[in-house]
Design a protein that fits this description.
By secondary structure, the chain is of the alpha+beta class. 35% of the residues lie in helices and 33% in strands. The protein is globular and about 40 Å long.
């Protein structure tokens, strides 16, 4: 699991991307995923990301956090991201679900020991 995103006080937005991967082209997928994570972090309104993947089942979930719906729309329309989306549908995903939600409440816990 990646580090937990350090988000501000709500409200803000979450884009939840749950997927099941195909078995092929793993190296190129990993490279593209890393590139997209870095590119997203440069976008206006980006707040952070959390992502987990189960190599055994191919299931994964990535939640990215954004200041506004406009920031999400800007990321969705980014040319490099659109190319990665197309490649995902053609090569890397058997299925995915994308959900967008407004975060109204958040809580934090950190063990002190």
């Amino acid at each position: 699991m990646s580090e937990l995103a350090d988000t501000p006080e709500p409200p803000y937005w979450a884009v939840i991307f749950a997927s099941v991967r195909t078995e092929g082209d793993a190296d190129r997928y990993a490279q593209t995923a890393d590139e997209m994570m870095a590119l997203a972090a440069e976008q206006p309104g980006y707040l952070g990301v959390e992502s987990v993947h189960d190599a055994e089942t191919g299931a994964g979930i990535t939640v990215s956090y954004w200041e506004s719906e406009q920031a999400i729309a800007g990321w969705r329309a980014h040319a490099d991201h659109k190319t990665a989306q197309r490649l995902g549908r053609e090569r890397w995903y058997r299925a995915y679900r994308l959900r967008v939600a407004r975060v109204e409440r958040a809580a934090t816990f950190e063990r002190s020991d």
